[in-house]
Structures are given as structure tokens and as C-alpha cells.
Design brief:
Blueprint (H helix, E strand, L loop, with lengths): L1 E9 L19 E10 L2 E7 L8 E3 L4 E4 L1 E3 L11 H8 L4 H6 L4 H9 L3 H18 L1 E7 L6 H17 L4 E8 L10 H18 L5 E6 L6 H13 L3 E6 L7 H7 L4 E4 L7 H7 L3 E4 L1 H7 L6 H6 L5 E2 L13 H12 L3 H8 L1 H6 L17 E4 L6 H4 L6 E6 L2 E2 L1
Bound molecules: N-(iminomethyl)-L-glutamic acid (NIG) and fe (iii) ion.
The site of fe (iii) ion has 5 residues, from loops.
Amino acid sequence: MLIHNISKIYGVETKTSGIRKGSSMAEVDSLENAWILVENGRITDFGNGVEPEHTERHDAQGMVVAPAFVDCHTHLVFATGREGEFVDRIKGLSYEEIASRGGGILNSAGRLAQMSEDELFEQAKDRLMYVQRSGTGAIEIKSGYGLDVENELKMLRVARRLNDEGIVPVRSTFLGAHAVPAAFKGDTDGYVDLVIKEILPEVVSEGLADYIDVFCEKGYFDLAQTKRILEAGLKQGLRSRIHVNQFHAFGGVDLAKQMNALSVEHLEVLGEGDLEVLQESDLIPVALPACSFFLSIPYTPAREIIDAGCALVLASDFNPGSSPVFDLNFVFSLACVKQRLLPNEAFNALTINAAHALEFEEECGSIAKGKRADLNFYTIDNLDQIPYYPAHNQVSHVMRGGRIL
Ligand code: NIG
Ligand code: FE
């Protein structure tokens, strides 16, 4: 198929480069009055000026085309929303207070245990259709509302089935250590044993996870417990991407570096020396501004991270407790308004850099020959107009794997 009559394509890549860091985050290559050739679901050529001949043509009607977003941090498989806790927070309770009363992640775990795998799958599939339609073309999904063998496997099987549905490519992350379940109250080490000795081996033998994650946070899992889990994961061939520094900084970023983690995610608080660790390592920092927005907590100092010469990735953290937000166009706006990212920087953080954070950079994240034809068609004149309208999704339609939806 030849896509023609495109006013501008953003995010074109003619030679592959690594993850964008520091000042290169502000560079977005574009082409005006352009066309894209798509064959067998892949981009085979693109350019401007003289168009190649093709019988099957799609008229972009002067729209802007950009690569689909990549969402590298979500908890998309969950049973129900948690509106009650939302109202409790409006009345004055904090996220941490709600969790300490048995709400929060444990609330979601209780509800998920009641739901069959098929029901969970159907719900998550509907959600993923909305996600895809909003502009996302590849996604990561975590477990972590199971918290026992049966239910963690159930969640990860659902994530695998979602990948097999072919809606968008899915990477799965085993987050058994998301919270300490009620049965292990006061015995976090006992639960860590269960995660390492009982759940992880099953996850690995069924081939259900690409990565391992831990909520490294006060009241959840400390440094020693996080280290044990990450080491066990590494032994089984799972690299880590961890929840760290959301509320407290106590050495988790340094531990992630020692454990050769792929990414450190959240980072609302940076401890002394954390920025230096990011500068001297290949850890990928991931900011989740929709979580900061929804919980009214500080935003990750993304401006400082980029100005220190580091890479930055943005993701939704879509989940029922801290971020019921999946639309990355809104995350784009938040990053610009609240974290002072330039639109070009936020665009790279949501596309090519996010693809690197999922090791999907050969597959998606830019418009390049050989990559999947995952494209968003926008009714805008220029890229800056995406974050400029925070509550208006301007994606007219999308192409996923070469199919117009
Ligand atoms: O990334 N911080 C830990 N986990 C999720 C929230 C999970 C929940 O509240 O259900 C997060 O914000
Ligand atoms: Fe999260």
C-alpha cells in the first residue's frame, strides 16, 4: 500500500542510532509532502517528491503521520477500577494511608482472585483496543495483582494471550513483588521466598515473562529483598525494570545499576548521587507523569535528567490505583507542561526511546525501513499541537502492522 498526500511525517530515521540522550533528545527528523510504502505489514520505503506506483493507495488527506507511541510501563491487566479510593483521597487520605488500611494493590489483588482467566482476558482485550486506538502501538504489561502462584500465572497468561491476539506487540513483566499479600503480613521475607522459589520457576518454565520487576519502596520491598529477587531473575535470564524512588530514595537506583537492570521507573524523588549513577550507567530512566498528576505527588525531575545528558522515557503507568490513564497524548502534554520538556523531547521519549526501553527498537518507535507499519494519523499542522491540546486526542485513525483501523 502506498500512503500518499501526507503533509508531514515526524520521527523518520534513515540510519539506526542508539537511545537518544541529553541534547539529542530535542532532534526529531521530519519530511514534508511525503509518502510511505508499506508491504507485508512493514515500512519498505518512504520519501517526498516523486511517488512510487502502487495500485493500493491510502490518501492521508494532508494529515500528519507519526510512529505509534510505545508504552513501556503499564498494569493493564486488572479486575476493576478503584473509584472508592479515588474519592477517599479527595476526602483527604493519602495513597500510602489507603494502602496501609488494606486498600491499594491488595484491594486489586482481592478482586482479581475472584475473576476467571477468560473474564480477565476479555476485559483486558477491550481495554487494549482503546489503548491502540488512542495512539499506542506496542506495550508492556506487568503482573502484580496476583500475589500467589495461581493468580500471578493467570495474569501473565492473559498478557501472553493479548500478545497472541495481534492487537499490538506485548512485552510481559513478572511483578510478583508488587506488595506483600495479607497471608504474609509481617513476613515479607517469607513472601520473597515464595516469589523466588515457587512463582518465578513456574513463570519461567511457561515462558510467560520477558522481564522481572519489584516495587522497591518503604513498606513494600527493601534493598536486600529487591536484590534477592533481581538476582534470582537474572539467573533465570530475566533482566529487570524496577519501580524505584516513587516516594523514597534509599539506594534503589544504585542497586539497579549493580544488577544490570534495563530501566529504573518512577523516580519522583532522586536521592543524593542518583543523577550521577544515571549519568555513568546505561540504566534507562522512565518518568510516569500521569501517576504524579493523579496522586498529586512530585513529578520526576525529567528536565534535570535530560540536562545531565541522560536519556529519558515517558510511559503511562496505566493502573487502577495511581494512574487510570492510558492515553499517551495526555502524558505528552503533562511532560511538556509539568516537566518542561520540549515537545520534540517528549515525542522521542514516547517513541524511539520507549522502544529501546522494551528492546523493541528494531521493530517500532520510528518510521524506518524494515520496521512495523505502526502509524498514527493526526489532524494537526505540526508536532507542537499534540501537547498543546491536553484534553483533545487528535489521532484521526491508526495503522497497526500495515492495517488501517
Ligand atoms: O506504578 N507503585 C506501585 N505500583 C503502581 C500502582 C499500583 C496500584 O496502586 O494498583 C504504580 O504506581
Ligand atoms: Fe507502575
